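#help-structures

NK: newbie question. if I give both the sequence and a SMILES, will the prediction place the ligand too? trying with flavin-adenine dinucleotide
OV: yes, paste both and it writes out the complex. here, I ran yours:
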Amino acid sequence: MSAQRQGRVVVVGGSVAGLLTARAIAPYAESVVVLERDRLPDSPAPRGRVPQGRHLHLLLSAGLDRLRDWFPGIEAELESRGAVRVDGTGAWIHQGGAYRARGDWGRPALSQTRPLLEHVVRSRVAALPGVTVERGVTVTGVTRSGRRVTGVVADGRERPADLVVDCSGRSSRIAHDLAQSHVLEPPVTHVGIDIGYTSFTMRRAADDFEGQFLVCSDNPGSFRGGAVLPVEDDRWQVTLAGVHGDVPPATDDGIADFAASLPTPAVAQLIERCERRLRRRHLPVPVEPAAALRETTRPSPRARDPRGRVEQLRPHLRAGDDVVCAAGSRPG
Ligand SMILES: Cc1cc2nc3c(=O)[nH]c(=O)nc-3n(C[C@H](O)[C@H](O)[C@H](O)COP(=O)(O)OP(=O)(O)OC[C@H]3O[C@@H](n4cnc5c(N)ncnc54)[C@H](O)[C@@H]3O)c2cc1C
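OV: that's the protein plus ligand as structure tokens.
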């Protein structure tokens, strides 16, 4: 063990933020334990505790660069599992009432489902020396000695730690516990955005669409949008979105009507072509599991802390990603 490696770290939450936090800390810590309440699937699959995982997620090139540095060969691994490189040459982006010009972005992005990305990152992190990912473990709060955080309580058991990193997402129990016990009550700002999504996947064929991917958003007079991206297993992932209660329906007919109402017909045409192909082969029409999600609020990360409590807790407790700032969601 290297002389620099010191201390036991507990990371709460084994989703994207928790896994990447574990990777960042691993070279410096004696041990890193990631505690995840879900009984994580052994293969890439959406999971109930991360409902946004069913919706469209694109890995932009800066994120890909970081993953490449941390996990050598991960790009090739993702591609071998069906991830698709996309760039501006094949982009159909309908914005401001017209299609944007196409051109080489220089750096491609990688398109795959969020579950595949998380699955591959998780297997890489679990293989790191000194890192353990424990599944099906629920953290209910932190243990403290005075104002110092000394560990967590997980499934009723104390787990000591020199550093706790809370990556348990938008509904952090640690934050709730600290607020309930009046230890740390950062004010939260809610910004109503009221956007609703419906997402699904469809089988992809080479002649479905001459572009690589399709985005329709920010069009004058329309508060509806849609995006279609190629993902693993020869599928298109489609996400439709509307605002102020205009949540896209999650039924075949409702999806077709909503897509047809977008400022460009291309999304509806693509869905129709996929459906037609299925009908020709006498296969059921058309969507794999649809999922709807409605975002309503966004907490602000700028918490005022007049008594300096954050500073006292900070050396042993940190928070990451959606714990700090998230698009709050409830089923649509
Ligand atoms: C519709 C939609 C589309 C999005 N698209 C993109 C995109 O294209 N690109 C992008 O970068 N981001 C996107 N985001 C945002 C992204 O999904 C989130 O920012 C990201 O998932 C946050 O990751 P996280 O690890 O902080 O939290 P989460 O992914 O929510 O994970 C929290 C984890 O903690 C676990 N957990 C919770 N409580 C406990 C507990 N008490 N004990 C143990 N474990 C616990 C949960 O089971 C879960 O695994 C999108 C979000 C939405 C809603």
